[in-house]
Amino acid sequence: MYAHITRFLDYMSGQRGCSPLTRSTYEDSLTACADYLIARHPTIAWETVATGHVREWLAHLMRSNYAPNTVNRSLSALRSFYRYLLRDGLVSSDPAHNVRNPKAPKRIPGFVREGEMDRLFRYYRFGEDYVGRRDRTLLLLLYHTGLRAAEVLGLNLGDVDLSTAQLRVTGKGNKQRVVPFGAELTNALRDYLPVRREFLQRFPTDENALFLSSRGHRLGYSTLRTMVRTALSAVTTQQKKSPHVLRHSFATAMLNHGAQLEAIRRLLGHESVVTTSIYTHTTVAELRQQYAAAHPHDRAEKG
Known about the structure:
The protein is mainly α.
């Protein structure tokens, strides 16, 4: 069973252009599924898995207190895997096809407030060495463009055009889009690039990645995640402090300042404006908070 998983992952990376993070998610979900099924049905194979087995596995995840969204991602990974197996004639049916997704509660995306981001860039001590300059530029880029972590980490020098203030971004499924940016990020990148060039001279490599690790290689996700969490912890009590929270923060700020959903959709690289519309809920929450703070009757009751 595991050999088929490995070939599927190679197919997703090589031909479908999925990011390392997506590949890792698929690998974790499918390996966990195989482990569970083999432990309980030692002779089972992917071609003999039935709908009942899939439901049994999902029930196990729910009993283990996995969140509905996590269970849904696992089921989605299994469906993608079976589409691959069907296409290559390795199975004759998809046992996950008629399995219903567990209902997941709608959650308003977490975001960092504009004032908190202002304090971060104004007061946080990034350091004057390469890593400090890199981290500040990275945070600015995430907040000013709303790119996914994998998209930022995949940027090469040739993807940055300072003369037009645009990024060429390769998103999900290797789809490319152009993302504009403003003067603050332009200046930060203009200051960062010479520092990067000087830093790279320490290493016997001609790495093309825009953002480098301390060893001169392309920066990895774990380093990015740790850096973002550390920096955001200095300015916000927002529970989630991941690179994706900055994507939500970008979209929320854009919407609060009058940007149209369709424009935000294109900037974020969403397939459908329905996906982008989750940020309207965040804006309503923001308005409610502002109302409670500003309306004289509401303030009087609190006083």
